[in-house]
Amino acid sequence: MEWDPVQYLKFADERLRPGFDLLARIGELTRGPIIELGCGTGVHTRAIAARWPDHAVTGFDLSAEMLGQASREPSRIRWQQGDIASWHAEERQALVFSNATLQWVDDHAQLMPRLMRHLAAGGVLAIQMPRNFSAPSHVLMREVAAAGPWAERLAPLLRHDPVADPEAYYDMLAPLGRGGIDFWETEYLHILAGPADGESPVLAWTRGTALRPLLEPLTAAERRDFAARYDAALKAAYPRRTDGKTLLPFRRLFMIARA
After folding, report:
1. Which residue in 148, 132, 130, 129 sits closest to 214, CA to CA?
2. How far is CA 170 from CA 102, 109, 258, in A?
3. Are strands 180-193 and 119-130 parallel, antiparallel or unpaired?
4. 185 - beta bridge partners?
5. Alpha carbon distance 94, 258 (integer Å)
6. How far is CA 196 from CA 87, 193, 199, 200, 201, in A?
7. What is the pLDDT of residue 8?
8. Which of 131, 192, 223, 224 is the most buried (most CB within 10 A)?
């Protein structure tokens, strides 16, 4: 799946804020390298490199488009392309940081302990993932995917609950999080301005993330049809306020575990 940095960053402030909220809660680090898994355009990676200038920092992402955007600005950061599902580092990490990425990776029961085992003694695993898959934005997306002529093609791509309950992650991380574990959830209320093309801002938001894999296998005509059906449903679920803005509640799960 190709990613579009421009589309993703149409709502840069809203998308980036949770990562900075996570970063603010990490505290001091032990010695060792740092990696951001799913670094995207590298905004958080550069903030990490500035905060810990004595640590080697790597930004890791599957998307060549995102890494191309990230590497445009010269820095000491090493940019690396690869799949988190098979990522392995020879050296134990002081920090493994991941913001709004691991929901795309399967088998968290294996993934989370594997990431913890990559930490140095006292190292930190810091993760944020969206946990809004029962929100109208995602329910309606799945309904449109299941109701159109594309249903059979899109069925294998639907991700109903890629993020588990916090209690499940506690059970995954507690045996290895000897230095302590901190979990919390935040529901952001994003105030979105409507795009100039008349689409709902929630459609513009999902075009940058969750909607992309569903549109990719469709023809151009099918994409327009899917977007029109989905947008009509979104406008009913997320009505525009009297000031022209649209409110998008968005719940996110945060986890910090220290080895």
Report:
1. 148
2. 16, 11, 13
3. unpaired
4. 253
5. 10
6. 40, 9, 8, 10, 10
7. 45
8. 131
Of 257, 255, 224, 229, the residue nearest 21 (C-alpha): 255
Average pLDDT over the chain reads 93
- Three-state secondary structure string covering 212-233: HHHHCCCCHHHHHHHHHHHHHH
| φ, ψ (nearest 5 deg) of residue 83 | -100, 125
Pairing type for strands 57-61 and 93-99 reads unpaired
**What is the predicted pLDDT for the residue at 197?**
61
Alpha-carbon span 140 to 231, nearest angstrom: 9
Q: Residues 117-145: pLDDT tens digits? A: 999 999 999 999 999 999 999 999 999 99
**What's the pLDDT score for residue 165?**
96
- Beta-strand ranges (E) seen in 131-259 are 180-193, 245-258
pTM over 0.90: yes
Which two tokens mark 243? Answer: 């000031």
3-class DSSP assignment, residue 244: coil
Identify whether the C-beta of residue 122 lies closer than 8 Å to the C-beta of residue 75. no
Q: Where are the domains of the chain?
A: 5-258
Residue 3: what pLDDT? Answer: 46
CATH superfamily, with its number, for domain 5-258: Vaccinia Virus protein VP39 (3.40.50.150)
Q: How many residues does the chain have?
A: 259
